Amino acid sequence: MAHINLNQIDNMQYDVLREIGNIGAGNATTALSQMINAKIDMKVPKVDLLEFKELSDIVGGAENLVVGILFTLEGQIDGMMMFMLDMGAARHLVNSLMGSSNDKVDGEFTEMELSALNEIGNIIAGAYLSSLSSLTNILITSSIPYMAIDMAGAILSVPAIEFGKIGDRALLIETEFGEDGMSVNGYFILIPTLESYSAILSSLGL
Prior knowledge:
Layout: H1 11-36, E1 41-42, E2 46-51, H2 52-58, E3 65-75, E4 79-86, H3 87-98, H4 111-136, E5 140-142, E6 146-151, H5 152-163, E7 169-179, E8 182-192, H6 194-203
Antiparallel strand pairs: 1-7, 2-7, 3-4, 3-5, 3-6, 4-8, 7-8
């Protein structure tokens, strides 16, 4: 199997990665709709292959406080996946899920809210990975999610340290979803190993 060079990816490979992003984000949005029992509209996600050092700017800067939910991937695909939300988006989703009034916009999350947030991340990432698995016919399993609330730079340093030695790029899927006139941005960051990128593209005939 030819190894992929992420610095020299061709248009067709890029289109396939973008389509994987679209389908995964669509599935995740559907799962989220069912979870909070409200119709959620999703804009077409923006998909980009970025260097680790560029990621924190996309999510509002290295010092922006975010919720990060991190999974390691196992099975036939190795790597890491992360779902990130800024605090306002996380608060909105928690309020929607728990049916609490939307006037609580800041303040620390309670234990119950943190648990709800973890569950949201779990459902979203699970839906995302199952669509990737179905599309590629590759078995992908993930670890129990690890959630952190910290500055974006600190959270993103985890995959950068872990995977920086095998590549410096990640697939970023930026999606905007909303209900009742309120929209939030969510960021999926998929960091497969280079062998896993090759396996994904090979499974799709590239």
